[in-house]
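fold-stage: in
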Amino acid sequence: MEEIKFAQLDQQQLEKINELEKTIGVTIVAYDSSSTSAQGSSAYESTNSNHPS
């Protein structure tokens, strides 16, 4: 089984996430994208490709 790691955030990134959490009212978990498989990454991209920008 693949290990998924939490992202290492600097103080500025952490502050932005905290602000966003307060704005949208949910808890945000930041993961290290280099620890996810290519299959999971492409699956995410393909599910979001149908949405207009």
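fold-stage: in (second)
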Amino acid sequence: MGIEHRGAGVRVAAASSLALLAVAADAQPSAPDQSPLASGAQPAAASPAPIWQDVTSLGVTCLVHTPRGVETGALHDRVCAAVRAQAAKGAPVPVEVAAIGGAALAPGRVTLLVHANVERVGGAEVMALTLRPFRNAAGAGQFFGARPRVVAAGDAAALDRAVAALLAETLPWQAPARGGPRRPLSPETAPHS
């Protein structure tokens, strides 16, 4: 096609992009009058992404890096506790902090992988936060997570706001649906505290 690709990674990325474009093209109606909504039909309730189907529990696993190395003390515990507490709000399944490995990989569990990186910027410590759901199941992969957030490392209120924003972009029961209430995992699930 006139483009020379070097390396398997480029070929995989190009194939993935083409597959996404094909799926997007298939999702578009070919003409405005062929849209299901044009005929007056109501949109179907959105089902959760494969990663969230038949979930039985939610884990929170944190990794905190600082200029001194991997943090396993108070800062680590504060980040994990903030994510666990916010994720539990309205959760249809139990939510618990889990170390990497065993419990994080349990069948039926989605684990929130939380990465915090603390750096000195302009004389103050700031923390960059990322969060991505992981499930140890075929077909339940998710490449990207919520947009990263940056907060002052010692600001507990800013940490709580950042965690709430990350989870609103990640958890179906905390993500507001377009123009409607938050989405449950399924119609049968009731919040679990």
